């Protein structure tokens, strides 16, 4: 029997890092795993109280584990997405394609611009956010 993906309350970060992947892993499972890995990466890299230098080696190894697992998942994503689309389990559209958006949907924008503008505001700079 296949191991189901864990509920949102269980240790999903470690599970996303260690769960064996079948050749035909479902797109939905891959996406849940990617979400969990990005969440774990966010937690690891935004801890404002991390002053303990001896924990840096552990932190670096965890970040490397996440990166390695994301590479592994990325290799399987296209095939899994194709199967999910073919079986009508998911509908997919690129957010960067304004012609594919439904009427009333927000228009896609460059994702880095708000962060760049914020960074400039806290730096006191007048640099342009566009190239």
Which descriptors apply to this entry?
single chain; 131 residues; mainly alpha; 0% strand
What fraction of the residues are assigned to beta strands by DSSP?
Answer: under 5%
Percent of residues in helices: 40-55%
The SSE string, one letter per element, is HHHH
Query: Overall 3D geometry?
Result: flat
Integer average pLDDT: 76
What's the total helix number? 4
Any idea what the radius of gyration is?
A: 19 Å
Determine the N-to-C terminus distance: 53 Å
Number of strands: 0
Uncertain runs: none
Counting helices, strands and paired strands, the structural category is: mainly alpha
Quickly count the domains.
Answer: 1
Characterize the main sheet: none
Describe this structure in words.
This protein is mainly alpha-helical. The protein has one domain. 52% of the residues lie in helices and 0% in strands. It contains four helices and no strands. It has helices at residues 12-18, 27-45, 56-86, 113-123. The mean pLDDT is 76.
In short:
This protein has 131 residues and is mainly α. It is built from 4 helices and no strands.
Furnish the topology, listing elements before pairings.
Elements: H1 12-18, H2 27-45, H3 56-86, H4 113-123
Helix pairs in contact: 1-2, 2-3
């Amino acid at each position: 029997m296949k191991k189901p993906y864990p509920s949102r309350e269980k240790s999903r970060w470690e599970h996303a890092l260690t769960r064996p992947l079948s050749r035909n892993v479902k797109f939905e499972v891959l996406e849940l795993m990617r979400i969990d890995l990005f969440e774990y990466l966010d937690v690891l890299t935004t801890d404002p109280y991390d002053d303990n230098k001896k924990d840096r080696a552990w932190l670096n190894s965890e970040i490397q584990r996440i990166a390695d697992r994301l590479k592994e998942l990325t290799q399987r994503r296209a095939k899994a997405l194709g199967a999910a689309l073919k079986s009508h389990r998911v509908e997919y559209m690129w957010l960067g394609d304004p012609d594919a958006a439904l009427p009333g949907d927000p228009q896609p924008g460059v994702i880095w611009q708000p962060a760049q503008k914020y960074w400039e505001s806290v730096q006191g700079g007048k640099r342009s956010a566009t190239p």
